[in-house]
Amino acid sequence: MGKANELQDIVRLCNQARTEEQLFALLDESTKRLGFEQFALTHHVDLTGPPEDAIALWSYDAGWEATVMEQRYFLDDPIFAATQKSAAGFLWSDVGRIIDMTDRQKEILEKARKFGLSEGYTVPVHVPGEHEGSCNFGARSFDKLAPDALAKAHVVGYFAFEAARRIVRARQLPGVNAIPDLTSRQLDCLTLVAMGKTDWEIGRILGISEGTAHEHIEAARKRYGVAKRTQLIVRALYDGQISFSDIIH
Amino acid sequence: MTLIMKSDAYQRGNVIAANMHRARKRVFVDLLKWDLCVVDDEFEVDQFDNAGAIYLISAEPDGTHRGSIRLLPTVCPHILGTLFPDLCDGPVPTGPDICEITRGCFSPGIGAAERQRVRNQLATAAVEFALVNDIHTFTCIACGALYSQILALGWICEPLGLPRMIGGAMTGALRIDVSRETPRLLREAGTYVQSTLEMAAPTLLAA
Fold it and tell me: Which ranges of A130-228 does DSSP label H, i.e. alpha helix?
């Protein structure tokens, strides 16, 4: 397989990834194909309570991940600290040249070795308006690195990060932006509520019982997940489900 | 506002065009230390700033430069084809419907939030320019953080080859596809900016 084909394959698979599991599997395979053993595609955030839009896909040894969480190593992780200072990719063995490491940071690097993270390469991902991030590739040694592994790591890191952004966006959209589907009967009732009519009046106008009118309005309120009728009307107006011209005569 | 200009705007003394060349000198020569040709100690102008070049410039109403990009037709000499063909594993993409985006530049003074807004504005303008002018593909060279930022705009990109170390930064060539779908992709990525794209007024161009 030619170099161009291999890159295009990775990018095509990144573009097709729809779930974190698919992206994880793809990263895992690419990591091994490049001659690394473990990866972490991650935003540099509080990993014990990450923001909803944060990306964190790790294949690091479970023991190391637990240690990182318990000790809260992500707060002063030397790799994360070096990422902030570097636009270019870097070898973990060069971290001491990018930042002045504290004793705790040296200890973190030393402990990571026990979990198979002796050598590594980090691709920083700096995008304005987004958490600081990086794609990290680690191994016990670099003896088995494929030719051009570091250059390829950049392409994998950048495109996988973009795939992760897309997956996170898709996950966030439904709750935030989707406009609930309301039935035409519910919309009739909402319009009348907005005009200040009571359930009894709405029932009379639409030729249904007071109880049924009440049920239509409650069902619409639940669809929107709001507590009060006024909130429901504001949201429905805002979303264009009902219009001012319907309610102002 | 984002203006579309031809290269003769600068030669004809247009203030917005002159400010762009001035900002390019500060960014690429003074800050990034690129070895480029400087005219009158003030303006960065290279051999590709010729009759074929098109500029998309984000400027204040008084002409203050905020950011700009240069589009080069790939049927003429351009940077990827002339200087860095090695960044493509295959042939350099060229054709009447392919333009190269070069010299992406923000005024050094603007803050991070404004930078982001101008970046989105220029990307949106480039897409709109492409749709109106039957351009289906952009090519570009990106180094370091810029590579990821171009992908994060949300349009469809593909690497043209393996990145290489150039001047201390991992540098790669990208292909960006533009179609009727692209504005939607930008919107989904939150990078679409309602357009203010306009041709520079003839009166402004005439010095």
Answer: 149-177, 184-194, 199-206, 210-224
